[in-house]
């Protein structure tokens, strides 16, 4: 990590943007961090990238490159720098050895790839035997042997069928953008309209729970469950107070303990006009879904070292370790003009003990600083013991930052200061988020948002996916039209834009469920929604990818059969035709264009490609093909006498098929020739 100290007051020369490079050689430094400092007096700590794949990256040098100062046309000032890391000699020697060994093996793999691409099989075999370093997974080596060397298309397809059944196409599928399918669930006896309510889901019990909210006129204390199996609503209680439960409330938080089958309730909003006449102590409740019984855990969490009465906070639970986490939220104080926020708390369920982990005044050593806020999102990963926290509002500022809290090591890491400039959503407030741990994805449905250089609040209906392993945002859809005529025809097709709604995720069916919310209609400020929606995100299935791969293989076989047009035409009409998705215009057009090859065979140079393909493939006067190989005008590799007239086209097909397999199984993506400096 690296820590920047600052001047004792705001200064125009503070670094607004900078980059940090590192490495073991000044001639080969790599980017470790691209960030910026806030223009204030508080020190800031950033985590430096030190892992590349599974390899720990050792650093002898660090280079700080200033880019922008907070004051236009001013010089840069770096007031104080502190670097922390491991300098233990034994660890460093081991790390450096692993790093060098990794680079050595990658060099050999690049050579192996180069020799095989050029059909220099003797050199490939000798290096492969002596180095004993695998170029790729054995499955892909078999695929190359059957496809590129032997032209055994049937065996090649069998390998792909087996890869499909073993789930090897799943990583490739995640590169596709989802297609969202909204479905409004209309049922009798559903909850009334509301916003600021709370939802949680019992995956094993197949139930969704809704508690409380604001209907535009008053707080609610009704309690509902939706049966995912029987597709019906059931009102557990019209007023939880009558069942020994909590009072009416909105802007509170609930979470479900999947291990103990318990729902926890914390916080509530109190209108400033009512605060002089209302108890402002923070109560804390639990509801056992098996016994259907409410328990008041605490009448005042603040007296037990927990947060004061708060609202618009976030709460998650670690069911395995029976620890609940609450972060942020605005304190409900007698004087509503006083703005103060709660920090990050943990609650040990077994010990009935609250612990303050972070506050604005106490940020911890060697950790990125995070400010408390309201209306943010917080998600828990029980496998990695991480909390994901992003967005929200602090004072009048809408936020678009992203943090990860490492529970085990008690460290915050800033992932992004502003993810909107990295392809993510605009700064937002009351957006709703869910997580799929298996896919490594976070799903975000927007609420109130602010665009850059526009102080006006907007209610936008947009859905985003954040891929955790690749740190990549994808916008699935957005619809912010609010004209009445448009929505009268579309209101049952997709939900209207809103905020203060709620969303949960069913990991079994991989469906999102959303209920209610506030449309933010200035003409009808008391209007709330009572609609219930189901969202399915569709991507290609593994079978679809298999068909795509088989289509490419059968195209190749057809092209090679064109020496005998009669047999080739019959194969095109049967084996190729059956594998094509004719409803897909692009794929159907590719199929129809294959007939050109029947008339494009050139016996003189054994080039079976049409003039259209030749123009596409060989660029710059026919010297560079689409895979970056140096080629002669007739398509053969310069200086190499190929023993297989189809080897070049087969190796290109093979490298296309590699895209469907996990990156960890494939040969290096780089090419040896690209490493030669000019």
From TrEMBL:
Pfam families: Kelch_KLHDC2_KLHL20_DRC7, Muskelin_N
Oxidoreductase among keywords: no
Gene3D superfamilies xref list: Galactose-binding domain-like, Kelch-type beta propeller
Keyword Repeat (UniProt): yes
Span of domain Muskelin N-terminal: 2-138
Residues spanning the membrane: none
UniProt keyword terms in alphabetical order: Repeat
Stretches of the chain forming a coiled coil according to its record: none
Listed SUPFAM superfamilies: Kelch motif
Gene Ontology, cellular component aspect: cytoplasm
Protein name: Muskelin 1, intracellular mediator containing kelch motif
Origin species: Clydaea vesicula
């Amino acid at each position: 990590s690296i820590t920047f100290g600052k001047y004792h007051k705001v200064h125009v020369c503070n670094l607004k943007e900078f980059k940090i490079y590192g490495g073991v050689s000044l001639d080969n430094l790599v980017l470790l961090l691209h960030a910026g400092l806030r223009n204030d007096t508080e020190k800031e700590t950033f985590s430096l990238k030190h892992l590349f794949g599974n390899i720990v990256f050792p650093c002898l040098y660090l280079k700080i490159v200033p880019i922008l100062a907070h004051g236009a046309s001013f010089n840069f000032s770096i007031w104080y720098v502190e670097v922390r890391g491991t300098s233990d000699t034994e660890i460093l020697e081991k790390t450096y050895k692993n790093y060098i060994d990794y680079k050595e093996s990658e060099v050999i793999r690049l050579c192996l790839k180069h020799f095989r691409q050029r059909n220099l099989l003797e050199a490939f075999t000798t290096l492969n035997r002596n180095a004993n370093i695998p170029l790729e997974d054995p499955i892909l080596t078999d695929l190359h042997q059957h496809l590129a060397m032997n032209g055994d298309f049937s065996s090649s397809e069998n390998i792909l069928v087996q890869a499909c059944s073993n789930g090897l196409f799943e990583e490739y599928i995640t590169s596709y953008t989802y297609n969202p399918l909204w479905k409004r669930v209309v049922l009798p006896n559903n909850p009334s309209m509301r916003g600021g309510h709370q939802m949680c889901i019992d995956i094993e019990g197949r139930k969704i729970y809704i508690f409380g909210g604001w209907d535009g006129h008053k707080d609610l204390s009704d309690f509902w469950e939706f049966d995912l199996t029987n597709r019906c609503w059931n009102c557990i209680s019209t007023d939880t107070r009558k069942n020994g439960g909590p009072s009416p409330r909105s802007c509170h938080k609930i979470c479900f303990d999947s291990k103990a089958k318990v729902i926890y309730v914390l916080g509530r909003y109190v209108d400033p006009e009512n605060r002089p006449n209302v108890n402002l102590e923070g109560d804390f409740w639990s509801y056992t879904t098996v016994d259907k019984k409410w328990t008041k855990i605490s009448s005042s969490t603040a007296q037990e070292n927990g947060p004061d009465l708060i609202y618009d906070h976030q709460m998650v639970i670690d069911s395995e370790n029976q620890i609940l986490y609450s972060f942020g939220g605005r304190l409900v104080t007698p004087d509503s003009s006083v703005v103060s926020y709660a920090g990050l708390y943990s609650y040990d369920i077994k010990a009935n003990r609250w612990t303050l982990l972070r506050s604005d005044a106490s940020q911890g050593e060697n950790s990125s600083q995070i400010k408390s806020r309201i209306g943010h999102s917080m998600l828990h990963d029980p496998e990695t013991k991480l909390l994901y926290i992003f967005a929200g509002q602090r004072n009048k500022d809408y936020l678009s930052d992203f943090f990860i809290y490492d529970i085990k090591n008690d460290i915050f890491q800033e992932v992004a200061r502003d993810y909107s400039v990295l392809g993510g959503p605009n700064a937002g407030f009351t957006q709703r988020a869910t997580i799929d741990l298996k896919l490594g994805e976070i799903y975000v449905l927007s609420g109130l948002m602010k665009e850059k250089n526009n102080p006006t609040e907007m209610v936008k209906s947009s859905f985003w996916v954040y891929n955790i392993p690749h740190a990549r945002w994808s916008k699935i859809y957005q619809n912010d039209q609010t004209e009445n005529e448009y929505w009268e025809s579309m209101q049952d097709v997709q939900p209207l834009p809103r905020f203060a709604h709620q969303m949960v995720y069913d990991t079994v069916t991989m469906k999102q469920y959303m209920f209610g919310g506030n449309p933010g209609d200035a003409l009808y400020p008391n209007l709330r929604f009572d609609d219930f929606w189901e969202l399915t995100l569709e991507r290609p299935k593994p079978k679809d990818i298999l068909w795509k791969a088989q289509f490419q293989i059968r195209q190749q076989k057809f092209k090679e059969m064109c020496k005998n047009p009669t047999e080739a035409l019959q194969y095109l009409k049967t084996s190729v035709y059956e594998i094509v998705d004719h409803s897909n215009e692009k794929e159907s057009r590719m199929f129809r264009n294959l007939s050109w090859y029947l008339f494009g065979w050139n016996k003189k140079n054994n080039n079976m490609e049409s003039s259209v393909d030749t123009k596409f493939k060989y660029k710059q006067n026919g010297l560079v093909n689409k895979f970056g190989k140096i080629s002669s005008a007739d398509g053969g590799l310069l200086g190499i006498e190929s023993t297989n007239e189809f080897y070049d086209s087969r190796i290109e097909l093979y490298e296309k098929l590699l895209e469907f397999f996990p990156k960890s199984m494939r040969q290096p993506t780089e090419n040896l020739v690209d490493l030669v400096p000019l």
